[in-house]
Amino acid sequence: MSDLFPPFVPDPPEKTRRRSFKSVPFRVIAPNLITLLALCLGLTAIRLAFEERLEPAIVAIFFAALLDGVDGRVARMLKGTSRFGAELDSLSDFVNFGVAPALILYSFILFHLKSIGWVVALVFAIASCLRLARFNVMLDDPNRPEWKRDFFVGMPAPMGAITALLPIYLHFVGVPMGAGLAPVALVYVLAMAIMMVSTVPTYSGKTVGKRIPRSYVLPIFVGAVALAALMASFPFEVLALGTIAYLALIPVGLVRYRQLERLHADAPPVEAEAPRPPTEGA
């Protein structure tokens, strides 16, 4: 019986080194806090849509889009860009500008078309996800020319959400949006989804604001104050006009892209730079 239970001496415990965690600079955390705040706004917009409170839901999506444009600039300004921040930004954008607008539009008008309306809502959300995935992949391309950084490939997710909500803006302006116009809204939302996954170049505006002539400073201040006052007084009128103007300017951006493409077609190749860390914003 003693052979069944031979004496056993366990191995001596290995000396484990105490794991040390390096402190993270606040400049790296600050952009992520802005992204999380935008995500909270997107999730709150979904709740407000279920409660049939569309006005504050649209406001939440609008401010989430503003914060999405700020976090990347803050990260670059503070030199706090990181891969974690880019991934967090993409996940936040999918919720804010893919899932939230799709649910808001379905609860507002697409539900009149029942299953077909739900399919289009799904297509819009999936198109936003695919657009963000493509954006992240293109950031890792070291052979992308520098001039192309001024353009997005397809409509960015935040603008896709803002433009897709045009039927709701028109409703609050006074245009009746009943079951009769549901097919029109369906076609429009589907067109915005296609624009997000398309290869149509749209101007990014990332280089705007780097250098401003002194003569433009005061007019910019006045214009910003006037725009803020108009947004506070006539929010849905401004959003409707801004959306229509943005859609009308897409062909202008396409023409400018083709001009730059022809201009750089015969230019000598430039040595590719090392891949830069991805920046927030899609």
From TrEMBL:
The keyword Transferase applies. One of its GO terms (cellular component) is membrane. Residues 216-251 form the CDP-alcohol phosphatidyltransferase C-terminal domain. One of its GO terms (molecular function) is CDP-diacylglycerol-serine O-phosphatidyltransferase activity. It catalyses: a CDP-1,2-diacyl-sn-glycerol + L-serine = a 1,2-diacyl-sn-glycero-3-phospho-L-serine + CMP + H(+). Keywords: Lipid biosynthesis, Lipid metabolism, Membrane, Phospholipid biosynthesis, Phospholipid metabolism, Transferase, Transmembrane, Transmembrane helix. The keyword Isomerase does not apply. GO terms for biological process: phospholipid biosynthetic process. The chain crosses the membrane at residues 28-50, 56-74, 119-139, 151-172, 184-203, 215-232, 238-255. It comes from the Bacteria. Its main location: membrane. It is found in: Endomembrane system. Its EC number is 2.7.8.8. It is a multi-pass membrane protein. PANTHER family: CDP-DIACYLGLYCEROL--GLYCEROL-3-PHOSPHATE 3-PHOSPHATIDYLTRANSFERASE-RELATED (PTHR14269), CDP-DIACYLGLYCEROL--SERINE O-PHOSPHATIDYLTRANSFERASE (PTHR14269:SF61). Belongs to the CDP-alcohol phosphatidyltransferase class-I family. This is CDP-diacylglycerol--serine O-phosphatidyltransferase. It comes from Salinarimonas soli. The gene is pssA.
